Input
Amino acid sequence: MTMPGIGPVTALTYRTTIDDPKRFRRSRSVGAYLGLTPRRYQSGEVDRVGRITKVGDGETRTALFEAANVILRPTTRWSSMKAWAMKIADRQGVRRAKVALARRMAVTLHRMWIPA
Output
């Protein structure tokens, strides 16, 4: 099964970074491992959500971000992931939509990779 935007280079980079999919109990933990989740600062009454954490492998994060960039181009075929990201782009902007789509692709790739 293939995903739009994910090519052989992105898939290989993702596979070498994750190495063993059983390391993660939940697929959504992969997004945090790759640094695609927002940084949070919580103290007392303060609750700030910042930029992405950028921990983990930068090459994989860049490859997933570029794959998200390809999906959000106007010339690409319509898909459910593109529709989801376009809704986010309308609400919060294209940059946040690209990061959110990259995180979602990382989680979906992990889910596809682990045995059922």
